[in-house]
Amino acid sequence: MKRFNLLVLLGLLILLSSCGESPPTEREDHFMGIAFCEVHGDELLEETVLPAPLTVEFEIEYQDAMEALFPNLGLAFAIDYPDQDSVVVEYCPACREANRLWLKEH
Fold first, then answer.
1. pLDDT, tens digit, for every residue of 66-95?
2. Are 49 and 74 in contact (CB under 8 A)?
3. Can you give the pTM of this predicted structure?
4. Could you give the 3-state DSSP secondary structure of residue 8?
5. Rounded CA separation 18/103 (Å)
6. How far apart are CA 100 and CA 39, in angstroms?
7. Neighbours of 95 (CB within 10 A)
8. Per residue in 10-46, pLDDT tens?
9. How far is CA 21 from each of CA 10, 11, 14, 17, 33, rounded to the nearest angstrom?
């Protein structure tokens, strides 16, 4: 019974100790400054790209697939970066491959 009480007390202390904590400073998909793909678990790489000069409206089916299967393509559009000739983006190579396969199949 004493052991049970200690476990309950420990659980309460853990719960109370997290109250009022400030949110983490890093994004959830970052660990010690390294970004990871939330789908594939691969480290995100950086690449300098030219922002696409057009606005693209993706079909709903593609938007859903992008969110679920390949969220880290590293796309950049000029509308988001009006004063920049190039942009450094993070991308996941596995996301780009999944995107390529998805487009081939659809």
1. 999 999 999 999 889 999 999 999 999 999
2. yes
3. 0.67
4. helix
5. 44
6. 16
7. 22
8. 444 444 444 454 444 445 555 667 899 999 999 999 9
9. 18, 17, 12, 8, 20
